[in-house]
Amino acid sequence: MTDAPDAFPPDSPLVAEVLPSPNHGPRLGVSRPDMLLLHYTGMQSTPEALAWLRAPERQVSAHYLVLEDGRILQLVPEERRAWHAGAAFWAGATDINSHSIGIEIANPGHDFGYPPFPAIQIEAVTTLAKDILSRQPIPPDRVLAHSDVAPARKNDPGEKFPWDVLYRFGVGHLVEEAPPSDGRFFMRGEHGQPIEALQAMLALYGYGVPVSGTYCETTEAAVRAFQRHFRRSRVDGVADVSTLATLYALCASRPEPAGGTAAEQA
Length: 266
Known about the structure:
With about 270 residues, the protein is α/β, with parallel strands linked by helices. It is about 30% helix and about 10% strand. α6 (about 195-205) crosses α8.
C-alpha cells in the first residue's frame, strides 16, 4: 500500500497525537505541496470518520484531522500524497492530491444536521493552517475548500465555515461580500456574452468551467461553490449582482505570485 514506514514524527508542534494512516503515496510531479485544502468529515461521528481515514480498504486519508475540542491529529506526513481530494481540478491541475495538504475538520456536515463549527476548533484550524503556511510555499489564493476543486461532487466545509476568521489571521484570500440585493441575475439555461464573462472570471480564478457563454450545470455548480466560500450569505447557484461583484473584487485583489508579476519576472 505504501513504501513509507507507518510511524513518523509530527510535522507540526501543534499535533497532539500521530495516528498513522496507511493510505498515502509519493507526490507525483510535485516536489512540495502548493495548495491547502479544507474539508469537513461529513460523517455522523468523529470516531467513525477517524476509522474511515485509517482503513486500508477505504483508500481515503488526510494529513490532519482537527477534532471538535481543538485537538489536532496527524495521519499522513506532509511530504506524502494523502488521498482526500478525489476527482478534482484547480487552475489547470487535476492531481490535487499531489499538489495539496488536506485538513479534515470534524463536523457531520450537511447530511447530518451541519452544526456550527466550535470556536475552539476554528482556532485550532487557523493556528494549524498558519503553521503549515510558514513551512510550505502555499500562496493565499490556494487555500481552498474541497467544494472549490470538486464543485459538482462536494460542498464541504460549507457555508458555515468562517473563512473570514482565518483571513483575519493571515490565512487565505478573501474580500468583503457584496450584500445580496434585487436586480439582474443569471441562472441555468441562459446564454450570452455576460455568461461568458462570468465563466471567464471563474476560470481565471481557478474553477473548472467551460467558457462557452451557456449557463450550464457545470457553471451552476462552480457558482454555488464560489458562494459557499466567498459569498456565504446566500448559496443558490444563481449569479446575482452580489455574486458578480464579489467575484470581480476577488479576481482584482488576487495576490501577486512570489517574485512579482510575470512582467516583472520576464
